[in-house]
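In the current project phase, we have settled on a layout for protein records. One protein thus recorded is set out beneath this paragraph:
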Amino acid sequence: MTKSAEKRATYADVLAAPRHVVAELIRGTLVTSPRPASPHAHAASVLGMDLGSPFHRGRGGPGGWWLLDEPELHFADDIVVPDLAAWRRERMTAVPKVAYFELAPDWVCEVVSPSTEAIDRAEKSDINAAAGVAWMWLVNPVARVLEVFALNGGRWTRNVVHRDAAAARIPPFDAIELPLDDLWLEGD
């Protein structure tokens, strides 16, 4: 008895996914995730606001970055959608008017949820490393943990872990102190 090969998913499958899910193409498989619950959405939103002003807009910080929420990234045959991503302006001089990005960001952030953590830590982190993303943050808003990974020789090295920290300077955005306690919802 032979097992028939499953049909590989394509970008058409991503486009046909229901609007209420995040659709990604990982290693030929369509992966869909529900829209994030409030702890996840809150952490991603606050982080985007806290980094956006000093780094994207240059207000109270050095500027020099493009910071985007949920950009669709196409890396070879994989399509991933991080919660946040940022490009240094020296590498991407302007944000192109496109449906998706093929230039790997310099930083990605995944706010992990019970339904996404395994994929964020394994397949998506491997895809980001292969694409050359220099920095990756994994934020767990329920456990109140922010993990920082740096790409070294094509592999992730955990740089630092912040647990319940009130504030910290975190690479590559260490020019400012980031108020981490703002990321966590009360009662989590």
